[in-house]
Amino acid sequence: MSDIFNKLLILRTPRIGPAKYNELVAKFGSVDAVVDAINPGADLRDSVAREMESAARLNITYVSDTDDLYPGALLKITNHPPVITVRGNLETLRMHTVGVVGTRHATAAGMGFVADLACEFASRGIAVVSGMAIGTDPAAHSETLRAPVNIQTIALLWGRADYIWPVENESLYFEILERGAVVSEMPVGFNNPIGSNFVMRNRWIAGIAEKLILGEADLKSGSMTTARFAIESNRELWAIPSHPADSRAAGPNSLIASGTAKLCMGIDDFFDSNKKSTPTAKKNDGVTESENDVLDKLGTIPVSESVLTQIVKKSVSEIKRDLVVLELRGIIKKVDGGYIKL
Q1: E-strand spans in the chain?
Q2: Are 340 and 302 in contact (CB under 8 A)?
Q3: What is the pLDDT of residue 280?
Q4: Helices 305-312 & 316-328, crossing angle to 10 degrees?
Q5: Chain centre distance of CA 61
Q6: In which residue ranges of the chain is pLDDT below 50?
Q7: Between vectors from CA 213 to CA 125 and to CA 80, what angle results, nearest 5°?
Q8: How many CA atoms lie within 13 A of 323 on its CB side?
Q9: Please, are residues 101 and 230 in contact by the beta-carbon 8 Å criterion?
Q10: Mapping DSSP to helix (H, G, I), strand (E, B) and coil, where does residue 121 land?
């Protein structure tokens, strides 16, 4: 652990990040020589020792970029973190990876699509990487846990590995520890993260993922920043299209339109399938003509009762009656903004 201790002495020195770390190692020839040159004081040495003791108590492991466990894709990124902290199953770091990101304000339809996609990847032994925020991230993480394999997901945190944010993700955090890993470059047990850490977290998501899939995202969102990092890192970039009237579609739709991202329509885009035929509409036995008029106007984008009344040309009471029947049969679902077809 002396090697990790010395690397942390350098990284915990004020104004030294990955770029400066690499510059110093190149200048002095080795980590030990850098430590001799900067001559850390007793306070810093004690601080790093306490940090490592805290990590040991929490079963958090330090993984250096000279270790075999260090993610190979991340290793190729310029000025990657020289040391990361990992809590959970370390073997997750050896897996092939796919990044899945999107807005925190995702629609029910958007989260559902991402969730199904993530579960399919995990079922094929590919770890799904995301940021464990809200919206798209937990949809991706949580649904991997349905996959019938032991290791499924990597949560790359904006804060330290022992810091759960947001608090709503507490149970998800501990589920990930059982079936995957949480990863961070932040010091264990120390100051809470600040907003600028989000940008670096997004860069590492793009770095650790062998390919990146973008879900719903506004043009100026953090997810679009992750997509830009993926492009800079020569990662394969995919985007899930959405309704152009929704601002959350602007990000992925623009990348598809420009040819920057490939169009993602489902899991068959990534794996060979003997069932490449165009999907046919689901048959709904027992649906009346009146109910079918309503059903025909529903899809994955929520439609409100008032809009249905206008386009189906029926009274509000008739629309409500048909919606109740269809929902009871499990054919449609009420979500924020209206109804969607299942």
Answers
A1: 60-64, 83-88, 97-101, 127-130, 153-156, 180-184, 211-214, 236-239, 262-263, 332-335, 338-341
A2: yes
A3: 41
A4: 110
A5: 22
A6: 275-283
A7: 80
A8: 24
A9: no
A10: helix
As given in the structure block, the two tokens for residue 251 are 């990000």
User: Which amino acid, one-letter code, is at 157?
Assistant: L
- Strand pairing report for 332-335 and 83-88: unpaired
Residue 333 φ then ψ, to 5°: -145, 140
Residues 239/252, Cβ–Cβ less than 8 Å: yes
For 321, other C-beta atoms within 10 Å of its C-beta total 15
Residues 6+ away with beta carbon under 8 Å from 27: 34
Specify the pairing of strand 332-335 against strand 338-341: antiparallel
Residue 282's pLDDT is: 47
Q: What distance in Å separates the CA atoms of residue 94 and residue 83, rounded to the nearest whole number?
A: 16
Sheet holding 211-214, edge to edge: 60-64, 83-88, 180-184, 153-156, 127-130, 97-101, 211-214, 236-239, 262-263
For the entire predicted model, the pTM comes to: 0.83
CB atoms within 10 A of CB 165: 17
Tell me, what's the pLDDT at 291?
Answer: 87
C-alpha to C-alpha distance for 327 and 40, rounded to whole angstroms: 66
Q: Which domains does the chain have, with CATH numbers?
A: 1-57 (no CATH), 90-269 (3.40.50.450), 289-341 (1.10.10.10)
Closest CA to 65 of 15, 16, 4: 4
